[in-house]
Every structure is written in C-alpha cells, then in structure tokens.
Design goal:
single chain, 10 helices, alpha+beta, five-stranded mixed beta sheet
Length: 333
C-alpha cells in the first residue's frame, strides 16, 4: 500500500545532499578569494546573506564586488543542487528591510536535469583562475554565441571586445595600478589577502605570477609578485576579452552580474578554455569610462573576463583554498 501522505521533507533535499551540494558550491570565485557569504538551511529553504566582515573597504567600499561574489555563489549553489536532482526557485533580495539578505531558495525535485547542467557542475572543481599568458580560444565566435545566451535571463549585456582595443584596455589597467600604487590602505589590504602559502582564504602564492609573466599579459590586477619564473616560455597573451555590463549600478545588478559570471566561467571550463575574471578596471571611474566607450550601447561595465586556452602538457594550477563548510553554512534542526 502506498503512503498517501508523504513526509513534507520528501520535497526538500536531505542533510547529506545539502552538505554535498554546498561543499561543491563553496568553490565559487570571489574577489581576492574572500568568500564573503553566509548560508542557512532551515529544513525547507536555503538563505544566502552577504558577510560584511569580509568587505574590502579600500578596494570595494560600496560592496559591489562583494555582491558580485555572492551572485557567483548563488549560481554555483543552484548548479550543484541541480546536479543532485533539485530545481531551485530563487527570490532575490526578499526583504527590503534587510539589504544583506540577498536570496532565498525553494526546492523542487528535478529528476532529469539537462546534460549541460551536469557538465557545469562537474566543471566547478575543474575551474581555475588563470593569470598566465594564454593561447587564443578555439572557435571563438561559437563561444561568444553560447555565453551570450546565458546572459538573456538576467537583463545584462555581454560584449566581446575586438583585439584592436586591447592597448586601450591595457593602458586603463596600468592606470588603475598607478593610481593605487601609493594608496597604503589598498596595498595593505591587497597584501593581507594575497601571497600567503597557508590558510583557507585569500589568493595563494602559487596562484600569483612573476613580473616577467605578468608583463606578457598586460591586462590584470597587479598582485604581489611571485618569485621569478617564466612559465609558458615566451608565449604572448592571445586571450580574448568579454565585458559584462548592466543598465544601472545597483545591488540587484551586482547579484545578477555574479550569477552570469559564474555561468560563463563554468561554460568555458566545460569547453576546455582557461579564464580569468578582472574587476580592478571597473573599481575606478577612469577605467569604467574607458570600458563604457568601447560598448555599442549605454551601460555600466561590471567585470572583464579573459578567455583563452592553456597549453597542453603543463602542470595543473592548484585549486585555491576554501573555508571549512561549518564557517559558511548553518543548518537549523
């Protein structure tokens, strides 16, 4: 005889599923690998909040990049649960009185998610931020078409930049570096969060590049330099650049930007491409104006994404560390 009154918990993921999905989702990218999010599972719904204790006050005083990071986490969460057979319905910014309360997720069973969703979930553990020079991405027009389709539900724009504008972007990147060079608060913050060999957060030393390597890229945040090395030999960077932009500059825009950023990075990883998200150019008005002038429509630039191909037969880039799950997830029993 079948049970006509199934347990209400039958329609929500059990605790082992929640733990597995959240452990995978915690691999989401974030500014300086700060991982500025807190999640709570109340037995029925999952709640996502921003962790303001991890705000980079010199780099990101308005919390724009913090919220973009949380948006990436939100998309990683949805992807991880989908691969476990759960559809997620999201209410973004559910309480205007609580601006730190970014999203609440309800669950529905999804026994047969598309293969593309499962592939993106597998890509979560494979994705790395690649700051080294890259070869050109393969089948670039198809890549652009595919990732632009991911943007449609989020009311954002994704623009592929022509190689001819790269010198202007490199100049804007260098200007951002020069402007920050004697900003002691910014420099102190940068060194606090990068270049260390241990700990569950921050940009580890093995993820940084040497001065010689950085010189062959030209477009990137200037982190503390790694010891001298010349990985990828004399390869000059042939990556292509995308700009993700919004119609305005608000917390909802930032959250959606992070979600799209996550989707693009994972889709590129599935395609065997290397990626590096760049936000330093959009931190300062000058860089934003340069980027905005390169767009064919009015918009607020949020993130630049480098996309290319890593050479074959080279050591994998080690994964960046992550905080223990107990620090970012609470489960109400």
């Amino acid at each position: 005889m079948t049970d006509s009154n199934p347990s209400p918990t039958a329609n929500v993921p059990d605790h082992p599923t929640v733990l597995a999905a959240m452990r995978l989702a915690s691999r989401a990218p974030s500014v300086h690998n700060t991982q500025p999010w807190r999640c709570e599972f109340d037995g029925t719904r999952l709640h996502l909040r921003r962790d303001n204790d991890r705000l980079l006050s010199a780099t990101d005083p308005l919390g724009r990049q913090l919220v973009i990071s949380c948006g990436a986490m939100l998309h990683h969460v949805r992807t991880a649960f989908a691969a476990q057979g759960w559809h997620t319905d999201v209410t973004r910014l559910p309480d205007p009185e609580q601006p730190d309360y970014l999203a609440v997720i309800d669950f529905r069973r999804w026994p047969d998610p598309p293969d593309s969703v499962r592939a993106r979930a597998r890509a979560i553990d494979q994705r790395r931020t690649d700051r080294l020079p890259m070869l050109a991405p393969t089948d670039w027009p198809q890549v652009v078409h595919t990732v632009q389709m991911l943007v449609i539900p989020h009311d954002l724009e994704l623009t592929a930049l022509d190689d001819s504008v790269r010198p202007r972007l490199a100049a804007a990147s260098e200007h951002a570096t020069a402007t920050r060079r004697y900003d002691m608060e910014y420099q102190s913050e940068l060194r606090w969060w990068s270049g260390h060999s241990s700990g569950p957060e921050g940009v580890p030393r093995n993820a940084l590049v040497s001065d010689a390597e950085f010189a062959r890229v030209g477009v990137g945040r200037t982190f503390p330099s790694a010891p001298h090395s010349a990985r990828r030999g004399t390869l000059e960077d042939r990556s292509r650049l995308l700009v993700l932009s919004s119609s305005s500059d608000s917390q909802p825009n930032w959250l959606h930007t992070g979600e799209v950023l996550s989707a693009v990075l994972l889709e590129c990883t599935v395609a065997g491409l290397a990626t590096c998200a760049l936000t330093h150019i959009t931190e300062l008005p000058t860089g934003r104006r340069v980027l905005a002038s390169l767009l064919a429509y009015p918009g607020v630039p949020q993130v630049v994404i480098r996309i290319g191909t890593a050479p074959d037969n080279e050591p994998d880039i080690p994964p960046s560390p992550r905080r223990p799950l107990v620090e970012i997830l609470s489960i109400r029993r």
